Amino acid sequence: MDLKAIRDHLSKAELAIGQEHPLSARIKTVARNLTPGDRLWCDDALTAQNSLLAILADLEQLPKGLPPPVSPGGEGSAQRAETQVPLGVNEAIEQIGAAIELL
Question: For the whole model, what pTM was predicted?
């Protein structure tokens, strides 16, 4: 198990979705669990894999597209902001998948 490569993938996933995304903190926690010397270090590949699979499932549940355009003055602009896929989600999914393969 190449911990550095796994942490690199997780770091890229975190950067892809942005630190403000709620799943970013969960990704960072898994990375810390796999970092020797960190106070959260647990060296437990099974727990890390389960956590990453849960994060991956949450990312895959995000909406995949935008709703139809709304006419000017319509009420749909707030809805559009809610359903838009955050930038980098697909990249984060790829990076987390790569990290899981290395576990």
Answer: 0.78
